[in-house]
Amino acid sequence: MLCSGCVDTIQDTFNEYACGLCGQRAYRGGLCGTCRRDTKLSGLVYLGHFEGALKEILHALKYEDVRNAAAVLGGALAEGVKDAGLPRGVIIPIPLSKPRRRERGYNQAALIAGALADALDWPLLDALERVKHTKPQTKLSRSLRLANMTDAFQSRFNFKESNLPVYLVDDVATTGATLTAAARALKKTGAHRVVGIVVATGH
Predict the structure, then answer these.
(1) CA distance 158 to 147
(2) 3-class SS at 52?
(3) How many helical (H) and strand (E) elements, i.e. helices and strands, does the chain have?
(4) What pLDDT digit, counting tens, does each position of 139-165 carry?
(5) Chain centroid to CA 53: how far?
(6) Are 159 and 5 in contact (CB under 8 A)?
(7) Minimal CA–CA distance to 191: which of 159, 154, 161?
(8) Do residues 101 and 130 touch, judged by C-beta distance below 8 A?
(9) Cα dist from 19 to 34, 63, 110, 135, whole Å
(10) What do you get for the CA distance between the two ends of the chain, in Å?
């Protein structure tokens, strides 16, 4: 689906030593200490920034029904997970609200998560329910995004007896508000280590 030139463009946007959410220096990429504390995430894996070829393929997946893009992105994320040396865990997609799911016909995060789980041979769990229909995040400030996502999710499962890390999968993370709300919901039901895995970051 992507030519070698576009693959190179995507790889060029990844900064191994920058926080995926704020852009500040972070050891071996992922999250800086401040974003790690604020988001309740133990780390973040991403392919690159939300621009160029990566932006185009995500737009095609979300708005043009190019669902086979999810397999390409899930496979690429699997390589990133392996490179990061992350231990086997449970993969959980970020759910859409019911109105948005009906409008789009599918959840792009679930398609990416399914492809990632297949590539890694890790369990996929539909553990989160979106209990609040939120406003689109695109034009909101960071503080308004966090407020918008407060109590947006509820966990369907009890993780208190599981020692496996949890991997939250979404398409794009800008401020981390969605991942933060999801991580909080999972931690309320016993998840200990929650790591974000996204295709692109938008800081």
Answers:
(1) 25
(2) helix
(3) 8, 6
(4) 555 566 656 667 789 999 899 888 889
(5) 18
(6) no
(7) 159
(8) no
(9) 10, 28, 25, 26
(10) 26
Phi, psi of 91 (to 5 degrees): -95, 125
User: pTM for the full model?
Assistant: 0.88
Q: Assess contact for 169 and 198: CB atoms under 8 A.
A: yes
User: Mapped to the 3 state alphabet, what secondary structure does 73-131 carry?
Assistant: HHHHHHHHHHHHCCCCCEEEECCCCHHHHHHHCCCHHHHHHHHHHHHHCCCECCCEEEC
Residue 75 backbone dihedrals phi, psi, to 5 degrees: -65, -40
Task: Residue 182: name the closest of 172, 196, 171, 165 by CA.
Answer: 196
Would you state the structure tokens that stand for residue 53, as one six-digit string?
């070829």
The residue ranges of DSSP E strands in the chain, in sequence order, are 43-49, 90-93, 128-130, 153-155, 166-173, 194-201
User: Which domains are assigned to the chain?
Assistant: 4-201 (3.40.50)
Taken in order 145, 151, 157, 161, the sign of the CA dihedral is positive
pLDDT along the chain (203 residues), means of 10: 74 77 81 89 91 91 93 92 93 90 92 97 94 63 62 87 92 90 92 94 78
Instruction: Give which of 197, 199, 203 is closest to 41, Cα–Cα.
Output: 197
